[in-house]
Amino acid sequence: AQTVTQSQPEMSVQEAETVTLSCTYDTSESDYYLFWYKQPPSRQMILVIRQEAYKQQNATENRFSVNFQKAAKSFSLKISDSQLGDAAMYFCAYRSIQGGSEKLVFGKGTKLTVNP
Amino acid sequence: GAVVSQHPSWVICKSGTSVKIECRSLDFQATTMFWYRQFPKQSLMLMATSNEGSKATYEQGVEKDKFLINHASLTLSTLTVTSAHPEDSSFYICSWVSRSTDTQYFGPGTRLTVL
Q: Which 3 state secondary structure label does DSSP give A4?
């Protein structure tokens, strides 16, 4: 079974600075999806970014970008120019493509604090 | 963007009563949806997978008679917590998989408190 590990329970960053959240995963599959979701204090889960494993190019969404290292099974999230509204729990998630399963396997999350 | 609504956002009920939570996908087509439970400061725990027109598939340890899922249409699913007890108090979240983007979009969640 696939597993997702987020080794940083908590991180903090100064406003306007850059922070990187780590995520590693374990799988024997060659094709899959990876996601970062954000859960602010409102607890609404919000999709931040998505990466298809077959794509070598790292996904980006405005101030959010990933460093996808397929061989190392690493999928880190970089937040540039951090804003107070970025403060949230961030969950890394894996989704298999094989077998038709649409389930997400979540990491335990990283709580990000943004200091003014 | 893909919008998922969930109702109610919070509910308080007495022990022994049943509570129904509705989840709708508002502006996108989806067939598969999921129900999750989240305890404070923890990740999401998958309870069940549901497809329109078929019975829900429950994760190990989740009582299907306790958590009834009705996937009424392509846009509506309900979760009924039957004979609720204080240990059922939790945050329940639904999600739908968009056909066009193959991505899960989440509802805002329902906080259930059982007295």
A: strand
